[in-house]
């Protein structure tokens, strides 16, 4: 960061400015929002430098807070992860991760192709020692006092065995402690029923393993939870495989969007209902804000050497700013280091536990 | 039905009056609603006869339309399916299924324990020839013109291989034709992305098999769909395994309930918003009715020799009546017979298809 000495003391977020559905202007608007709210934040911006310099020049709040990295290529939403890891060295996504790998930035944010970002992150940042499958964790609106639950995995990998689910529990607990300030998070394991005899074999095995680790990893294990508990208040962290998690959050999002659209229609139906919608606008906006997915935009990649936040491809400036804030919060809390220590200290024990569970069966 | 000669010409629904969360009074209120709307319906009511007779006597519309079957025992929500199939012969649930098996009723409805009902149904009604795993299909509010999509399996079995998923597609298509009058239903296979290379191995195999059957089974295959398409308008029938389906619908329900509660809170917030809620009440009630789960109450068990509808355990009279109506509609359309014919005609072909797919890999 030789070209920007004013960055000293700031927490630096490495931002892939390309690859989102709305283009780099929205990304720059998003980081400007973050810079405006947070004097402790600085950026390395990756993409077509000429274009980015123009966009940044329009935002006075970004003066002296952005370092540029020129990248000729962009990963598109259609690119296959397997190709991108081979031929993607000149992309803004690669460059954004490289800055984290080299220790120049404290975390990375990208709105690009999720599969490509995960494949590249695994290649460049490498998995934490002891982690078999990294996971993507998101926040979901819930009935809990803090307003959101952590859910993982929501799509890093379509498979997860009992040991992977244990690691998700450990990583999710660490995330809830550092990202949401919950000192002793409650962990639930997603199943089709709460009775211990229900569900798939790997879930019964994972139930025993997670239960064994609750005390030493400082979380509370509430046992099996159901889909209805994802937005509920029974657990703070919902653990599942990436296939189930991905389907569940997309179903929840789709249902919420349908209700939102039908609500708007209902309010347009008659003169009386149109008047009602004007009277209720403040209350409805408050509700909207409470469950606004943009406010909690950002899937965090867990289990890597470094913090990577995947912002929604269709995120607007508010969404990008939320993802940047998440990367900042985690960087400031020293999350990556704490998670690495947690996983390392339990990895050996997990091996033992897996061993004894499989022997006892 | 010797004690009720007036039932002649009616479609007879066998109703398990016990085992729901709200007791037999709600079940009787529900069948009275149905009887009031539909002169072509008659009932066999299973449970503690003395109590049921008292409840029925209060509803004039049920005069001469109910046959009673006295059953001393009740399956509770806590009973394990494996126990119930051994020791449940004197329960109202068993008796309700027995009436279908004996050909005295055209379909059965129960609000009881889902797992027990499925286990008993498999034991008493037996699987259709060619069906490996029966499935539970539900209707989910959607953006489609008919207002709902069919989704299966939502929890009959936590496993499903490619051949099972093909059978679900065939059974779901048949259900959509007979239950929803869609002549050529669009079938989608649930996955974590719409690209053909995504997801688990059994899904890729199922994709090929379902695609091969689309023409001869008279449905359109739209390929992979995502969780967001469950309430969407891309497909009419969503096919998935029972684990994923169960988690998805419970997540959707939980999210919808959370939004509903927050909406009520929002309208209570200020005098202005309270006034707004009064002005908007008609519109909001219309919205509520549109997505009211009670209106589409009833999971249909597919793949058995006979129609069984599982009503929600917490259903009120409106919910019970909706489940009864569903059983009636399916019975009237000759659904069970058509489905049996469809599965039989494709079972042999499916075997061949599975064989050729596995050979080509």
TrEMBL record, chains A, B:
It catalyses: a fatty acyl-[ACP] + phosphate = an acyl phosphate + holo-[ACP]. GO terms for biological process: fatty acid biosynthetic process; phospholipid biosynthetic process. It is found in: Cytoplasm. Pfam families: FA_synthesis (PF02504). Signal peptide: none annotated. Coiled coil: none annotated. Its main location: cytoplasm. The keyword Lipid biosynthesis applies. Its EC number is 2.3.1.274. It is an enzyme of class 2 (transferase). InterPro entries: FA_synthesis, Phospholipid_synth_PlsX-like. Pathway: Lipid metabolism; phospholipid metabolism. The keyword Ribonucleoprotein does not apply. GO terms for molecular function: phosphate:acyl-[acyl carrier protein] acyltransferase activity. Keywords: Acyltransferase, Cytoplasm, Lipid biosynthesis, Lipid metabolism, Phospholipid biosynthesis, Phospholipid metabolism, Transferase. Catalyzes the reversible formation of acyl-phosphate (acyl-PO(4)) from acyl-[acyl-carrier-protein] (acyl-ACP). This enzyme utilizes acyl-ACP as fatty acyl donor, but not acyl-CoA. Belongs to the PlsX family. Homodimer. Probably interacts with PlsY. This is Phosphate acyltransferase. It comes from Ruegeria conchae. The gene is plsX.
């Amino acid at each position: 960061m030789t070209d920007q000495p004013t960055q000293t003391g700031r927490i630096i977020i490495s931002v892939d400015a390309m690859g989102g559905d709305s283009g780099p202007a929205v990304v720059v608007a998003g980081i400007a929002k973050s810079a405006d709210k947070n004097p402790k934040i600085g950026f390395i911006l990756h993409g077509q430098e000429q274009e980015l310099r123009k966009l940044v020049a329009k935002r006075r709040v970004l003066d002296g807070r952005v370092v540029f990295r020129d990248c000729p290529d962009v990963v598109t939403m259609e690119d296959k992860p397997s190709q991108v890891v081979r031929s993607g060295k000149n992309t803004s996504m690669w460059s954004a991760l490289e800055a984290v790998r080299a220790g120049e930035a404290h975390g990375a944010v990208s709105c690009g192709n999720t599969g490509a970002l995960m494949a590249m992150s695994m290649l460049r940042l490498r998995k934490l020692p002891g982690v078999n499958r990294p996971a993507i964790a998101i926040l979901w609106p819930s009935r809990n006092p803090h307003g959101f639950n952590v859910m993982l995995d929501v799509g890093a990998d379509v498979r997860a065995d009992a040991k992977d689910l244990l690691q998700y529990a450990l990583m999710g607990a660490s995330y809830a402690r550092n990202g949401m300030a919950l000192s002793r998070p409650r962990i639930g394991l997603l199943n089709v029923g709460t009775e211990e005899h229900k569900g798939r074999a790997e879930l019964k095995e994972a139930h025993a393993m997670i239960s064994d680790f609750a005390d030493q990893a400082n979380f509370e294990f509430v046992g099996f939870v159901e889909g209805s508990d994802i937005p509920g208040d029974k657990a703070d962290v919902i653990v599942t495989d990436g296939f189930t998690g991905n389907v569940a959050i997309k179903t929840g999002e789709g249902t919420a969007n349908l209700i939102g659209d039908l609500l708007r229609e209902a309010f347009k139906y008659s003169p009386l209902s149109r008047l009602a919608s004007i009277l209720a606008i403040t209350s409805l906006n408050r509700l909207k804000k409470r469950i606004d997915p943009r406010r909690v935009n950002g899937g965090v990649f867990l289990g890597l050497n470094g913090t990577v936040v995947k912002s929604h491809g269709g995120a607007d400036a508010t969404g990008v700013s939320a993802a940047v804030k998440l990367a900042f919060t985690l960087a400031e809390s020293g999350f990556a280091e704490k998670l690495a220590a947690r996983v390392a200290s339990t990895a050996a024990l997990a091996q033992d536990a897996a061993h004894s569970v499989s022997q006892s069966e």
